[in-house]
């Protein structure tokens, strides 16, 4: 089996990365940065987001596991003290895999019929850079509302505990194939009206945004931020691909929610 190890880049994560790499090689596993079967991400959730984007072209072949060198993460749930146990578990393949849904984002441009496709593990946001963002929101091809405000966030179930949660969105269990649309400071008065509640869409239901005014806006995909011009529409859908996490012990999602937000 081939493996890769990614690090947040700080000294603690780097030294743990070297340790994990040496241990796994001692077990005769092959280090392969380009085509790993398993990626051990060391740092935090952000490090796993980077690893996901690095290996997003081979999601059907690569599984991920996260170690946190700071606070407990949603994707990074192993502690530095547990890496020896983790290494032994990885060496004793085959391992169990759990799959989580991803978000597909398709940006279509006004000219030339161009489009770009992105995958998000947490969420994609559309935010005004200056002034009020005005977007027509379509659900399954039908006009739903005209949004006016700071922005909109579309999250995956596993991303529902991240930015989405800060926007008052619901926490969605990752076994539910869905995406969630939540608002950032919408303008609501006698003239302008949005639904106000976060909306959860099942697989195959598209949500499409069409810019109405000429305000510059920013599209984010997880930690990545892209400034877009000439955008005709942005489409969101549950992606056909899934991310695969290597599971070596039970750590139920609701326990992770409890330990992260209530107590540990
Ligand atoms: P970062 O390091 O500042 O991460 C922000 C925090 O989000 C960290 O504490 C991280 O552990 C946590 N986080 C990431 N994914 C999570 C998840 N799925 N569930 C629960 N917590 C999660 O920034 P980064 O490393 O560049 O990560 C980008 C992410 O930061 C974005 O995907 C977005 O979800 C999040 N974010 C959150 C807010 C907010 O809560 N107001 C604002 C901007 C971005």
Automatic annotation (TrEMBL):
GO molecular function: ATP binding; metal ion binding; NAD binding; NAD+ kinase activity
InterPro entries linked to this entry: ATP-NAD_kinase_N, ATP-NAD_kinase_PpnK-typ_C, NAD/diacylglycerol_kinase_sf, NADK
Transmembrane among keywords: no
Location in the cell: Cytoplasm
GO biological process, one term: NAD+ metabolic process
Highest rank taxon of the organism: Bacteria
GO cellular component term of the entry, any: cytoplasm
Active-site residues from the entry: 45 (proton acceptor)
Entry binding sites for NAD(+): 45-46, 122-123, 148, 150, 185
Record keywords, A-Z: ATP-binding, Cytoplasm, Kinase, NAD, NADP, Nucleotide-binding, Transferase
Major place of residence: cytoplasm
EC code: 2.7.1.23
Listed SUPFAM superfamilies: NAD kinase/diacylglycerol kinase-like (SSF111331)
Cofactors required: a divalent metal cation
Catalytic activity: NAD(+) + ATP = ADP + NADP(+) + H(+)
Role according to the record: Involved in the regulation of the intracellular balance of NAD and NADP, and is a key enzyme in the biosynthesis of NADP. Catalyzes specifically the phosphorylation on 2'-hydroxyl of the adenosine moiety of NAD to yield NADP.
Sequence similarity: Belongs to the NAD kinase family.
UniProt name for this protein: NAD kinase
